[in-house]
Amino acid sequence: MEWAANARKSHFELGFVPTMGALHQGHIDLAKRAKAKNDLLVCSIFVNPIQFNNPEDLKKYPRDLERDLQRLQTIDCDAVFCPDEEEIYPEPVTTKYDFGHVDKVMEGKYRQGHFNGVAIVVNKLFDIVQPHRAYFGEKDFQQLQIIKALVKKEKKEVEVIACPTVRESDGLAMSSRNARLNPLQRKEAAKIFETLEGAKKRFGFMSPRAIKKWVEQEINASSELKLEYFEIVDAENLLPLEKTDPDFPVVGCIAVNAGEVRLIDNIFLNV
Ligand code: AMP
User: Fold this and answer.
1) Which of 16, 91, 97, 236 is the most exposed place for a label (fewest CB within 10 A)?
2) How far is Cα 203 from Cα 180, in angstroms, rounded to an integer?
């Protein structure tokens, strides 16, 4: 990306927000944070085919480039990188990352190959854009840990900035996939965050095992929702928590299916 190389040569600091488009306020919040702390803001829009383990999910992933570009213009985004597949993958990819435990559990377990696809594309995007800082949402908590591990492994000179989850007024985490929910599913989806807050209230009083059971019952009580997993893990290494009174940050991570739409969210349980 010549523009980025020139900007760097001119000693401008670049803030980068990689996205898959269908932008919502969560993405815009990341972009605004990047704009505020850097000389220039670069966003990318690329629906990365190799991170989808489900072809139907890739086909149905919402896309609206024109609207995305308009939204980015309103916040004075300095450059938008919208590569096509050929540009990112001129040849078939064979890289296989191993991040240890972090890529094997939760999303890694239920979406085989997903994080390998994420790591490959983010590594390529970092090479192309060469940002000083890159902004990622805590909404995808496990992905954030993968990106931090990737930066270490590939010795990238980029600072990874974690940004808090932006929510709808009823607590549902904003996601491009929310647009695929029917009105009833959308209403019921608010129970995901409500249940996470309930888990947080119970943390320290009930065992992790009992909280997991409670979350399962709460979510599955809705006819529209089906729990895939709820895990209580050490926020740093994502190892499952055994004790009730840890002296390190603990996060509860959830994946729920609402019909064909898969939603993820998380909450810090003790901070
Ligand atoms: P995506 O387009 O879904 O790949 O997301 C691009 C970036 O936006 C990732 O770093 C996500 O974690 C982040 N993101 C997505 N939804 C939210 C949200 N509701 N709040 C904060 N960040 C988000």
Assistant:
1) 91
2) 32
